[in-house]
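Lecture notes, part 5. Sequence design as translation. It can be helpful to think of inverse folding as translation between two languages: the language of shapes and the language of residues. The source text, in structure tokens, appears below.
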């Protein structure tokens, strides 16, 4: 069974002339860390929005754990944890209040939710900040809270959109190390997007490179580097996506 199975996905946003996704096929197996890599505007966030049911494809099928998202969105939503690119947090609530809100959304309540939040805050070095307003948090701190909000309900599939962009080295290391350990321990599936190739090469079991709404290449980082006789994933990425600077 695949955790994620995308078949021939086409998506053009209203008012746009060129497709954001142009025939995407992608199969991500269970129990692995998968990196969807591509430059700005490649279609990474659009792909993620489709998987979470936020937007619908013009054509093609999205299945999560063998269930078509069109018929099973409600069930699927409980099995996936989405960590969006933009901070999905309430700036005028405290850190704790934010996490309680997201826990409640997934039906978590009471003492067990409270304990879970406290454990995660401790794990992510935020225990002293639980009663501070999110608006006072740094980018790296917000990223960590955003991540906790997405995994409180123990999803089988975690989807993170550029979780390490715009954060300091320490936060980034904390996030990556946590995800690696969490994946190993719980045998869940992680899909993450990034344009940080060095990080992805080290972090991911499998990767795909996307550009202009098409998957260009897919495989294990080491195998791809060997196959294409490049020194690292970044060289391969540049070979495939070119030098032109994106918006
Ligand atoms: P990435 O996450 O890889 O940077 P996106 O999926 O956000 O790329 O965007 C893919 C393409 O779709 C880009 O050309 C972008 O400008 C366009 N796009 C993204 N969101 C919208 C939207 N809401 N309306 C119109 N065009 C959009
Ligand atoms: Mg994006």
């Amino acid at each position: 069974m695949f955790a994620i199975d995308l078949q021939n996905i086409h998506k053009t946003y209203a008012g746009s002339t060129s497709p954001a996704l142009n025939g995407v096929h992608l199969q991500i197996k269970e129990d692995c860390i998968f990196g969807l890599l591509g430059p700005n505007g490649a279609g990474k966030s659009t792909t993620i929005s489709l998987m979470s049911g936020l937007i619908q494809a013009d054509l093609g099928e999205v299945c999560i754990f063998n269930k078509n998202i069109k018929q099973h969105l409600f069930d699927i939503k409980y099995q996936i944890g989405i960590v969006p690119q933009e901070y999905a947090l309430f700036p005028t609530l405290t850190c704790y209040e934010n996490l309680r809100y997201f826990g409640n959304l997934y039906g978590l309540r009471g003492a067990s939710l409270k304990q879970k939040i406290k454990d995660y805050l401790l794990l992510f070095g935020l225990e002293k900040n639980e009663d501070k307003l999110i608006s006072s948090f740094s980018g790296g701190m917000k990223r960590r809270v955003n991540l906790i909000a997405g995994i409180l309900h123990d999803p089988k599939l975690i989807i993170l959109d550029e979780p390490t962009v715009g954060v300091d080295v320490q936060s980034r290391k904390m996030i990556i190390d946590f995800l690696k350990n969490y994946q190993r321990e719980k045998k869940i599936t992680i899909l993450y997007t990034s344009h940080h190739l060095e990080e992805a090469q080290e972090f991911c079991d499998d990767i795909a490179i996307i550009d202009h709404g098409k998957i260009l290449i897919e495989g294990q980082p080491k195998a791809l580097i060997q196959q294409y006789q490049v020194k690292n994933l970044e060289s391969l990425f540049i070979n495939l996506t070119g030098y032109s600077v994106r918006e």
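The translated text above is only one of many valid answers, since several sequences can fold into similar shapes. The mean pLDDT is 95.
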